[in-house]
Design a protein that fits this description.
Blueprint: H1 10-19, H2 33-63, H3 75-134, H4 140-155, E1 157-166, E2 170-178, E3 186-188, H5 192-200, E4 204-207, E5 222-230, E6 233-242, H6 250-288, H7 298-310, E7 318-326, H8 329-336, H9 338-355, E8 361-366, E9 369-377, H10 380-391, E10 398-400, E11 403-405, E12 409-415, H11 423-439, E13 445-447, H12 451-472, E14 475-484, E15 489-501, E16 505-507, H13 509-518, H14 522-543, E17 551-556, H15 558-561, H16 566-577, E18 584-589, H17 599-609, E19 613-619, H18 626-631, E20 636-639, H19 641-645, H20 651-667, E21 670-673, H21 679-687, E22 692-693, H22 704-714
Parallel strand pairs: 12-13, 15-17, 17-18, 18-19, 19-20, 20-21, 21-22
Antiparallel strand pairs: 1-2, 1-6, 2-3, 4-5, 5-6, 7-9, 7-12, 8-9, 10-11, 14-15, 14-22, 15-16
């Protein structure tokens, strides 16, 4: 029993042996009802046979005149002896009959009790099966309580408890009935009555009281404990205590043991159903949530949006959908690894939860894309304000392995309208607006407008045409000269890719390179431009008198910089074209080296071992730091055109350009000013002693034929 621990001292043990009568039911070989009835029939046949035998003997002694009894046995003595035997045998037969009747009654009571308990357990099992079929909530605790209620109703228990196995050798009380003091009890195998039952796996019947001092309530006069075994596995122990004045017997112990077998099956089934229900709920959760961030996924989010659209709202209250994409997130995965990228996504999801209202919804659509549902929007400005709150999350960096990572995002907003009245339509419009934000330079918020659909279709068509143009060789390379501002002569050229479109004419790089990036064509275009430009420069050297220090600058995309074969490709192009490495300058944007990883310096240093020069393009646009110039093997920096535009009117821009020029001179780095479009800008740059520059004022970009004529004229 769980609320009575077996005493450990010798006197207490003797008291236990005297007070507890352990039923001899190890093999449950108690005679069956059929065997008892057969025994009764045998007894009556034997009694009748004996009675007939005695009657025959008496008749023989009485009527057989010729029979002479021995002298030592008078006839009356023989008759009296026979009558005495008959009387004694009849008394024996009557006593045995009474015993067999009592045994029959006990067996009948046991059978009735067992049938009643089994039927009740079958009801519980049926209820479990029905609950499983109907997906009702019927947990293990309810099954345990039902088992104790059945035992109480049919055995007249005062209280009871069920202890289940925990770990390898411990029982813990998981359910109690009545005034049982076993709540929260924990016993090891072999400790107390319940522990002994668990250890021996045999039922125990106890009469009397083992140790009254150990009972928190009035001790019962009788109690039973039976093991709960399912398929040779011990699940626990069922304990019941009798009401006052009632003493259990071994037949009730046998009935409770059979009941325990059914109860163990019910408990095992309940556990199985709970595990299946838990697994099903986990599967449903996984099907509707992103397992990395624990945010809802696309399916659940769209269902929430449709629900919001169909719900009755106050007049003028609309639904807005924000679609967010982290800018240049692939750079984090490629440089720091996908594990670090996952940490960034988890951190951003945590920030997003704290930013979004509880009435709104959010989801991760996979990769670095997130969606936010904003309800009760009265105007686009409300949705724009929500997007600005989200953009404010990026003012602080994300810490990954003691490294600070700065992120940006592009957000598209779609507002419910007549043409966008479903979740899919809103998502389509928000995605379109997000793509517009990307194309406009990233790190911005764009509200969807109807004209964007036509632009999106146009971009889709243009992307297909670009792929065919790359395959068919419809690209061209133009060259913009780079001048020495002090001497006014060209010191090199920058190779710029162009697209010869059949209908739109010659398209500049800015109109189609974003499409090339989305289509995965950037690296292929980079390779073609690099090889074509190197071959062209070698041809120009044979046709014109170029200076020995004349340079060729070629842009290198971030995607190409991450290619493992980049260094080998550059070396092969230099070898096959015969171009000296010191004549080649590879221009890399600051965004490509935004993250200070070991990979970027390693690649740049390998490129430097080839003998080529490296230029940092768009210098000063927000990511640069002086540490970059010291850490990376840079030979040239190109000041972004946004600073050159304001150099004549903005003292801050002029001071910044002057600082960069002085910095370059101190670090022995060549400085080139981009985007010179007026004489005044060239004059200021000359005064600031900027060594080099390029722009439309100095020369537009030229095709190969135009470059040949330009070089012949200026040489």
């Amino acid at each position: 029993m769980p609320n009575v621990n077996a005493p450990e001292s010798a006197p207490d043990l003797k008291l236990t042996e005297r007070a507890a009568r352990i039923a001899g039911l190890r093999s449950f070989e108690t005679p069956t009802l059929e065997a008892v009835e057969q025994r009764r029939l045998q007894l009556w046949i034997m009694t009748l046979s004996m009675f007939l035998s005695v009657v025959v003997a008496l008749v023989t002694f009485t009527l057989w005149r010729d029979y002479r009894s021995p002298s030592w046995l008078p006839p009356f003595a023989a008759q009296g002896g026979l009558l005495g035997i008959v009387v004694l045998f009849c008394a024996y037969a009557i006593e045995k009959e009474l015993q067999l009747r009592r045994l029959t009654k006990l067996l009948v009571d046991e059978r009735v009790l067992t049938a009643a308990l089994t039927n009740r357990l079958r009801e519980v099992t049926s209820l479990l099966e029905a609950a499983k079929a109907m997906n009702l909530i019927l947990d293990l605790q309810q099954v345990l309580e039902t088992i104790l209620e059945c035992a109480h109703e049919l055995l007249e228990t005062r209280d009871g408890s069920i202890m289940l196995v925990h770990g390898s050798a411990e029982l813990r009380t998981v359910s109690v009935w009545g005034s049982s003091g076993a709540s929260g009890a924990r016993v090891g195998f072999g400790e107390g009555i319940a522990g002994r039952v668990a250890q021996t796996r045999e039922p125990v019947l106890v009469t009397g009281v083992i140790d009254p001092a150990r009972w928190p309530v009035e001790p019962p006069a009788s109690s039973m404990s039976v093991p709960l075994i399912h398929r040779d596995t011990l699940l626990g122990v069922l304990n019941v205590n009798a009401v006052a004045g009632r003493v259990y017997n071994e037949h009730q112990l046998r009935a409770l043991s059979l009941f325990g077998e059914q109860a163990a099956t019910a408990i095992a089934n309940a556990r199985l159903y709970e595990e299946q229900r838990l697994l099903a709920s986990q599967n449903v959760y996984q099907a509707l949530h992103d397992l990395l961030t624990n945010l809802p996924n696309r399916a659940l989010f769209l269902d929430r949006v449709n629900h919001a659209l169909s719900r009755r709202r106050r007049p003028g209250q609309l639904v807005a959908l924000l679609f967010l994409d982290l800018d240049d997130f692939k750079l984090i995965n490629d440089s720091l690894g996908h594990a670090s990228g996952d940490e960034v996504l988890i951190a951003f999801a945590d920030r997003l939860r704290g930013c979004v209202r509880s009435c709104d919804a959010m989801a991760r659509f996979g990769g670095d894309e997130f969606a936010i549902l904003v309800e009760e929007v009265s105007s686009p400005s409300d949705a724009f304000a929500a997007a600005e709150r989200i953009m404010a999350l990026f003012t602080e960096p994300f810490s990954i392995d003691e490294r600070r990572v700065w992120l940006r995002a592009s957000i598209g907003i779609a507002i419910e309208s007549i043409t966008a009245s479903s979740a899919e339509a809103l998502l389509r419009d928000a995605d379109t607006a997000k793509n517009v934000a990307k194309n406009q330079g990233k790190d911005r918020i764009v509200v969807f407008q109807e004209t964007m659909h036509a632009d999106a279709l146009e971009r889709l068509d243009l992307q297909g045409e670009l792929k065919r143009a790359v395959e068919q060789g419809n690209l061209a390379v133009h060259y913009q000269p780079i001048f020495s501002l002090a001497h006014g002569r060209a010191i090199g050229v920058e190779a710029l890719v162009r697209w010869r479109h059949t209908l739109r004419g010659l398209l500049p790089a800015g109109t189609f390179l974003p499409l090339a990036e989305q289509a995965g064509l950037l690296v292929q275009i980079d390779r073609w431009v690099l090889r074509h430009a190197c071959e062209t420069l070698q041809e120009l050297r044979r046709e014109t008198a170029l200076p020995d220090d004349f340079l060729l600058s070629v842009n290198l995309s971030p995607a190409h910089l991450r290619e493992a074969t980049l260094v080998d490709e550059v070396a092969e192009i230099l070898q096959s074209t015969g171009l000296e490495p010191e004549r080649l300058v590879l221009e890399i944007t600051e965004g490509a080296i935004l993250l200070e990883t070991e990979k970027v310096p390693f690649i740049l240093n390998r490129l430097k071992t080839l003998g080529i020069k490296l230029a940092l393009d768009d210098f000063g646009t927000g990511y640069s730091s002086l540490a970059h110039l010291r850490r990376f093997p840079v030979d040239m920096v190109k000041i972004d055109r946004v600073f050159i535009e304001g150099i004549t009117s903005d003292k801050g821009a002029s001071a910044l350009v002057q600082a960069i020029v002085r910095l370059g001179r101190g670090l022995n780095i060549e400085v080139v000013a981009e985007g010179i479009e007026h004489q005044a800008q060239a004059d200021v740059l000359t005064q600031l002693r900027c060594p080099c520059g390029q722009g439309w004022f100095l020369s537009v970009d030229l095709p190969r034929e135009g470059l040949v004529e330009f070089l012949r004229r200026t040489s």
